[in-house]
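User: Hi! I'm working on a homework problem where we have to compare a predicted structure to a textbook description. Could you give me the structure for the chain below?
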Amino acid sequence: MTSPTPRVLAVANQKGGVGKTTAVVNLSASIALLGHRVLVIDLDPQGNASTGLGINIRELERSVYDVLLQEAPIEDVVQSSVVKGLFVVPANLDLAGAEIELVPMMGRETRLRKAVDRVAADYDYVFIDCPPSLGLLTVNALSAAQEVLVPVQCEYYALEGLAQLLRNIELVNSNLNPKLHVSTILCQMYDSRTRLSADVVSEVREHFGDKVLRSVIPRNVKIAESPSHGQPAVVLEPGGAGAKAYIAAAQEVVNGRA
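Assistant: Happy to help. Predicted structure tokens:
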């Protein structure tokens, strides 16, 4: 059963290599496995969230590009994933030129919001996987979402660039989407063998308080391997340490403990 107020979360961090898409794939899959109906919208031209959920992006007839640029009905683009209850609006390299193509268009910042509004009530959760930049695609995601989930890696410079992301979120909040707020910070790539990882988590908690999930995602081979299998780690090896951490994080998101 869908909730009366579906949660729409943009997963954003313009810093590359933080495991943003991995978080989208495994959190969305975990929440679907908990019995919720979930939609993932892939806004990254690389299409990694799509392939990570079993979609062959080389054979797409339509993608999120058609939704944004051609105003194709988003419900016609939705595909089933490898996880029951989890659906995908896929992306491919067609999206690479969208930033430029959107510039002269009317309502360029809110085209995704209009599409999401058409189908949001059909789902309990909508996750939008943003590209690692702060361009028009990410602005569209922030305009369509109510919440922002920020993955942070437990490494040097973890907070680098976050100030700019937070400024952009404030700008979108002021000018386009007054409901938008940062709800969740997820610490990833935690290495228990190093003092650095523990220090980074402490620093992130100091900055963001109870927005930081208690669950921390460890560095894990199965998490790294799972995209090559076209399956989330929580499906490929649900008993693994990485999968268990994502499932715990998903339960926190569902329970509103972020």
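For your comparison, note the following. The chain is about 40% helix and 15% strand. The first helix runs from residue 20 to 33. Good luck with the assignment!
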